[in-house]
Amino acid sequence: MTSFKQLALIGPTASGKTALSIKVAQKMNAYILSLDSLAIYKEIDIVSAKPTVDDRAGVLHFGIDEISPSEAFDVANYIKLYHSVYARCLEEGKNLVIVGGTSFYLKMLIDGISEVPLISENTTKKTTLALLNLTQAHAFLTKIDENYMSKIETKDSYRIEKALNIYFETGFSPTEYFQQNPPQPTITEPLPIYQIVWERELLRERIMLRTKMMVDEGLIDEICFLEKKYSRLPNCMKSIGIKETLAYLDGVYDKEVLIEKIATNTARLAKRQTTFNNSQFEDVIKGSVEELEKILLN
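Given the sequence above, the corresponding structure tokens read:
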């Protein structure tokens, strides 16, 4: 297939990306790759607002229901997923629509990430031992690479582990290692990016409505199930919608406050997403859902 086409559709949470992406995918004979850090997990359905099988309208989706909530997932995994989906599109004569709110993944596809070294068994043992005291591990790394570690919190075990692995395996500080191993872009050809924009108060109303619908559809039962099966330890259990519901189950507040808390935190997320999108991407085609639908479908 030599005429492969792809585009990205971004925007804040609850902005209408899902419905528009399906229409666009149908129009351009495309598969869909989700840019959603929560929809990637199986069994996290209501709180992630992932499209149901019926909602997907026969369009094959990737990046949805890929892993268990107990499994780790990061941008390196996402890039591997993109390569897999890209290859399948070429093999099956399909185009690709990349859509979602976790635009950081899209940014990394365009800018690239550095390859991390293969980690030996000896390094794994050293790192595991060092991680027994996160504060001490963070202080140890700060002496080696103060600038790099200033961006990492003392309780961020995931990033501390990566930094330890790099240092123990290569002998280089993270900064030195990444200078010697600069990022390699995954998407090298021009990628049209379309961004849905909303007036802030109108989006807030949509978020509140969606939050109420989530609760009505069984959000609390879903979180009870997830906590019982996976505990509160996985990173995904700290996501918006899940952490507030867990607090509700602990008796911290009632259902009315639960809805308000989720809606407020989701609105704050939407603001951060919009700020990120506006600052990180160039030559973006912006408009309302209706305006972008006219552009993309006509």
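The CA atoms of residues 122 and 148 lie 24 Å apart. Try to locate this feature in the token string yourself.
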